[in-house]
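User: Show me sequence and structure for the first protein, then do the same for the second.

Assistant: Starting with the first protein.
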Amino acid sequence: MPTDQTCQVLTAGFSFHRKPYAMVQPEGVKNYLLRLQTDGRCRARIDGDMSLVDAGDLLLFDPDEPYELRIDNETNPMGERLVESGDYHIFFNGSWVDEWWKRHTRPTRIKVELTESLLVLFRQLVLEQRRISNPYPEISSYYMRILCLEVDRLLSEHPTITNTNYVAYEIKNYIEENASSLFKLDDVATHIGISVSRGVHLFKEAFGKSIMQYTLDVRLNMARERIIFSPMTLEQVSESSGFNNYTYFHRVFRSRFGMSPKEFRVIHREQM
């Protein structure tokens, strides 16, 4: 790689707020910014609107994009109103970064899983920046390049989430995370912070099926894998996959896969 392809980390830190906080820079932050929400909630200006930012939201800002961040009382998934927001934030620039940014159309927000492999990159960059004496500043540069390329991979593996469909993806994530337990539409709506009717409408508009239809899809796919690979009894598979009634599970499974759970297990285990 040419030596003039610079990638410089200016600031890398972790913040956790329990008191209100606001930052407004209408002319932009003058450098590139990656901000990963790890805990709690806040609000940020995204595509011109102040939007709720949850854990797992990765925000990307170019140097000239207006920036506004506000941390105040928000309702958490338990229904409590409190100030609580944790995030990693990295300001960086350089000719390599300029070229990287232009490779793709970059949304301001990407919903990501807070995996250890992603968090360790942010963590290492913060640790490198905190070193009192650092004879190897290029280490930060290489960590930053890896993080940028990881963002590219996340973009390729996840659909772009816009303000118009973001709530639908929040609902989708809630379903996927809670499908193994029993929940009602009211639970989903309360968690997201919207009415049931609006949640139902936005989800159907984004994915072409109802919330409960998608929940059934997730539960049946979960049960299918457990029938094949786990030592659970079929009754245990049913219960652990979010069905509280084996008769109902048996009926919807046969309707979806054309055979009973027992027949499905026999056939697929013979192929293993």
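Switching to the second protein now.
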Amino acid sequence: MLSKAQISLITSLQNKKYRKQHGLFIVEGIKSVMEFISSSYEVESIFYTDDANTKVGKISHNIKSHELTETEFQKISALKSPQGILALVKLPLQQKIVPSDLKNKFSLVLDDVQDPGNLGTIIRTAEWFGIEHIICSIGTVDAYNPKVVQATMGSLARLQIHYTDLTDFIPATGLKVYGALLDGQSIYQTVWAKEGLIVMGNEGNGISDEIIPLIDQAVTIPRLGQAESLNVAVATTIFCSEISRQKLT
């Protein structure tokens, strides 16, 4: 039986304020929940329907589990087509990232990316291309927003996401900084170093005026058609793909 207090708690976690207050975030869907169970994250409790339980199999006895009716589950799910399983996962402690963590690799830097779907796709893309760290500005959408978590399809369980003041952090790394700008060198003519930061900007405004002076190499994806701009998640995928291509050839 689902109590009013449980419903209130779970629905409140749609809001960042209450995620921080309770130290919890929501994961929905069979694949995503199983990814977090298998990760270093601590799953606090799971709510599931009988149908979902037969698909999931055995859940650890260390995790509090609650079987719900389909009607009860609808009250806590934010999805249009729920899969019948939802987990409450403890927010990780924010570990301070140090420049040495980023040596000999490329990392993504997100400057005020606002759309949850974009951030989720970027996280999923980063994992595909072997990027371990994503450094976000304070104004970037919360990675534990349920829509972001859903869009990552479990990749969030394995990447390290950091929020910090970029104007202080970027210079402190000592790494070469590449920025996605319209007036940069073609991405297909850029010779990438063995390590560096890739800065992607806000959906509407691009990279902010405070960050542009910190960029060493402006890079652009050549435009052949008439579209005004590329979606930031799509552009990030192209950047990751081209860097990976050069590393593999």
